Amino acid sequence: MTTTESGSSDPDQRNRSLPVIENFSRRAAVKGAFATLGAGAFVAAVSPLRQASKNSSAAEFLQTHYTELSPEQKEGVLARLEAEAKEEYDADVTIADDRPIPGTKFVYAINLSVCNGNGKCVEACHKENNHDRDTNQSYIRVLEMPKGTLDMEQGTTSYSGVVPKGDKFYLPVQCQQCDEPPCVDVCPVKATWKEEDGIVVVDYNWCIGCRYCEAACPYHARRFNWKKPEVPADEVNPDQSYLSNRIRPTGVVEKCTYCLHRTRRGRLPACLEACPTGARVFGNILDPSSNIRWILENKRVYILKEELGTKPAFFYYFD
């Protein structure tokens, strides 16, 4: 036992491609947001950006949208971000541009029969993704749930003491990497999109901090970065990726990316490696010999809030 305190999909379905963005400058994005939201709503929505931009370089603010960057421009952006990490955090980091693996759609599943609420996944996510140490942020919440329901609203993250409790089960929730992601649909500047391997990503240099995506997510899986993250130099994870675990700027919304800086390099998510009970299963659903494919074909799986039609790439099952 552990003492802790824890804060149906078609296997052959293909994902949305990257958004087609032509001549989409930062100025055009902000102008488009103004037209979409209206004057009053726009001013309220981007107020966090005005504070954040005080500390932003001109190069960062005027940077072209990620999908429009040339290879040479990307190299310059990555070099600038690595230099900023050294200046602001005294950390030597390498920031890559990890792209999807052809013929891959990543899917996650959790065996709720063996998850015991120990919270090791939460801790691993916190460290792997360079979260703010002061707020103990993580992309994962573990809900202590009364047995007999999958209604998230009946769970709590503020449980403590010895786990597991006899009348409870434990429900880890993170980004569901939906095939129909409402968070993507509401973004007024196209700062977030779904990639070919099923991962929903954010261009943190393009996000204006309006938080529409955070409000649209029915799984409460997005986090707003209210202040500059505090991460000691010796705790910074130096293996980073532009669309993943690089230290996010103030005033943007961030999210789980299935640790794409690991999974697109053939490794497993940090939360899975940290799980002591073996509750987590991850893999490529397009591979007929994968463990994840076997589980979805042979287990009775559950989807959170299936009635909303978001088509998650995240599943739950019991033995």
What does this protein look like?
The protein has 319 residues and is of the alpha+beta class. The chain has a single domain (1-319), classed as Alpha-Beta Plaits (2-Layer Sandwich), CATH 3.30.70. Helix content is 27%, strand content 17%. It has eleven helices and 14 strands. It has helices at 26-37, 39-45, 47-53, 58-61, 71-89, 120-128, 182-186, 212-216, 260-263, 270-274, 291-298, and strands at residues 2-5, 94-96, 106-111, 141-146, 160-163, 168-173, 192-194, 200-202, 222-224, 239-241, 253-255, 280-284, 301-302, 314-317. The chain has a four-stranded mixed sheet with strand order 12-3-14-13, covered by helices on one side. Strands 1-5 form a two-stranded antiparallel sheet. A two-stranded parallel sheet has the order 2-10. A hairpin with a 5-residue loop joins strand 7 (192-194) and strand 8 (200-202). The two termini are 20 Å apart. The relative contact order is 0.22. Mean pLDDT is 87; it is low at 2-27 and 48-55.
